[in-house]
Amino acid sequence: MEATNEKTYSSPQRKLVKFFERSRNQWKAKAGAAKTMLKRLGGQVRRLERRTADSQPQLAALRTQVAEWRARHEETARELEALKKKYPHLSGES
Q1: Which residue from 17, 66, 68, 94 has the least number of CB within 10 angstroms?
Q2: Which residues have a Cβ under 8 Å from the Cβ of 11 and sit 6 or more positions away?
Q3: How far, in Å, CA of 52 to CA of 42, rounded?
Q4: What is the pTM of this model?
Q5: DSSP string, the chain
Q6: Is residue 33 domain-resident?
Q7: Angle 5-7-12 (CA atoms, 0-180°, nearest 5)?
C-alpha cells in the first residue's frame, strides 16, 4: 500500500476556494503591512544615524568649550580667593 499526503476535504470546493483565497489575501495584506513598516523604520534608523554622525563634531567642540570655561572659572575662583586673603577688609565679611 502506498501512503499519500493528500488531504480530503468534506466541504464543497466552492467554499474551500473562497476560504483559501480570503486566507491568502489576509496573509498578503499582513505581510505587505509588515514590509512597509520595516521599510519606514529602516529609513528612520538611517536618518537618526546620519543626524548622530553629523552632530558629533559639534558635540566635540561644545565639550572643548565647556572644559575651557570650567578651567577659566576655576582660575577666576582661585584669583578671587587670593585677593580675599590679600585684602580681607574688602571682602565684605566682618
Answers
A1: 94
A2: 19
A3: 15
A4: 0.52
A5: ---------SS-HHHHHHHHHHHHHHHHHHHHHHHHHHHHHHHHHHHHHHHHHHHHHHHHHHHHHHHHHHHHHHHHHHHHHHHHHH-GGGSS--
A6: yes
A7: 160
Distance set, CA 16 to CA 8, 27, 52, 77, 87 (Å): 11, 16, 53, 86, 100
| 2 within domain boundaries | no
Q: Which residue has the cell 488531504?
A: 7
Q: Residue 65: give the domain boundaries.
A: 13-90
pLDDT tens string 21-32 = 999 999 999 999
Q: Is residue 60 part of a domain?
A: yes
Number of domains in the chain: 1
Work out the angle at residue 67's Cα, subtended by the Cα atoms of residues 62 and 69, and round it to the nearest 5 degrees: 95
